[in-house]
Structure formats: structure tokens, C-alpha cells
Task: structure prediction
Amino acid sequence: MHASQRRSAGLGLALASAFAFGGSGVAAKPLIEAGLDPLHVVWLRVTGAALVMLPVAWRHRALVRRKPALLAGFGLLAVAGVQACYFAAISRIPVGVALLIEYLAPALVLLWVRFVQRRPVTRAAAVGVVLAVGGLACVVEVWAGVGFDPVGVLLALAAACCQVGYFVLSDQGGDADDAADPLGVIAYGLLVGAVVLTVVARPWGMDWSLLGGSADLGGTQVAAGLLLGWIVLIATVLAYVTGVISVRKLSPQVAGVVACLEAVIATVLAWVLLREHLSAPQILGGAVVLIGAFIAQSSTPKAPSGPVAGGPGDEAAGTARLSADRTTT
Result:
């Protein structure tokens, strides 16, 4: 495949991944408002996707012996942690706000690099962090005081921190020859996440009859089973797979930029389908968050070894994978 064709295919897959991930909150929120607990929705999402990815897990079964810590960390943080915190957040605050806060992760990782790993960061990266934090202040409208749900904001920040945890895992792997295949990591991460969430969510207490009914999607009644099918097949399986493949076809910087569209797509979909309108300062703040996150992401210093989840590459590649392969949002 020629370079231009490869790039075009990669861009198409990255856009598909961003759209698929961006639609998860819009489909999940009506189910939560219909009576399902956010943790139960997360369990249904992760367990359903894990079952679909079982053939991939079997194909990469050697990973259980080679990379047990990576698989456990991915399942706990990038799957269970991110999804549970994000879905709990959108039950309290608008979808777009939750995802914009979650997109602080590329900026937060710079703090880890600078203060925990004690490695220097570029001036541009520091500027990106400042921009992202300033944009966050606008998104949550700090001047409104207690009028904004602080618990929802903290849950969204927890989702961002879980993403940072996965990024740190991506920087701890062995050499490129021993790197784990991303699809295998995703498949086993979903399985680990499903097991963890089964214990935490206790789905045997869920009101299963709600799945046979309908949910209100911005004034339109939609079958709950249809919304769940979208969350599992499109917003999880398709989103993860297209995200991984797109990163392999694009440069990390390009993949990271396209992945940032997820927050924009989620906000627009929530605006159109859920009637969740954001104020002008929130929209401006969201744009600043994305710009700051991208600057921090593209300016991250090189790591001493390649990301374990995706083969050779620098730390910016790990961030691009993080953005494209979520757990988001």
C-alpha cells in the first residue's frame, strides 16, 4: 500500500474510532436514567465486549504467561477504572463536560514524568499543562461555586487518572522484540475488567427487565437492547480495534489529534441527542483543554524504552495509543 493510501486508510479508521468512542456516553446515559446503575452499564459493556473478543484472546493466549502484570494493569485501569468512573460521572454531569475533563490525561501524565520519574519536560509541554488546567476551570465553571456537581467532576478526574495509570504501564515494558500485541492486550484487558467489575458491580442484583424496555434519548423512546448493542459492539469492540489499527498506520502526533475529536463528537452528539447544551465559556474552555492536551501530548519527552502495549515507539506514541485505544471515554 502506498504511503498516501496508508495515511488515508489510517485517517478513516481513526475518525471511525473517535466517533465510536464518542457515542458511548450518549448511548449509556439514557440507560442510566432509565434505572440501571452506572456500574451495571459498565459491566454489561465490558463483559459483552470481552465475549466478542474471546477468539482474539485465545489467539494471544501466550500473553497470560509473558505479560501478566500488563494485562492485569490494563484491565484494572484502562478498562474497569476508566469506564466505571466515566459512566458514574455522566450520571451526574453532562457527557461533554465529563469527557473534556477526562482529556486532561495527556497533560496529567507530564506531571508524572516531571515529579515522579524526575525527567525533564519541554517548555511547550508545560504550557500545554497550564492551558489544559485553565480550560478545565472554564469547563466546570469554577466561578459558579457549588452549583456544579463536585462529585461528578471528581469522578471524571478519576477517569483521567486511570488513563494516566495505563500510560505509565505503557512506559514500563520490555524491549520492542518482546512487546505485546495491542489487540491481545485489549482482549485480555476486557476479560480482566469483566472479572473485576463482576465482583464490584454484582450484576446478579441488576433489574434485567429494564433491558427489555425502552429508554428516553432526548425525547425519543429507543429500545434499551439497541442502546446496549451500540455500546458493546460499536463504542467498545469497533472503537478499540479501529483505534489500534489507525495508530499503526499514522504517526503518533496525527493519531493523537484525530483522537481528540472524540471529545468534540461526544459533546455534539450529547447536544443534538440529549439536549445537553454547554455555555459559551464551557465550549471555549473545552477547546483550550483539547489544545493544551495535544500540546502536552506531542511534546512529551522520549521514554527509555518503547510502550509495552504496542511495539516500538516513543512516549508520545504511547499517549496516542492511549487516546485512540480507549477506555475513555
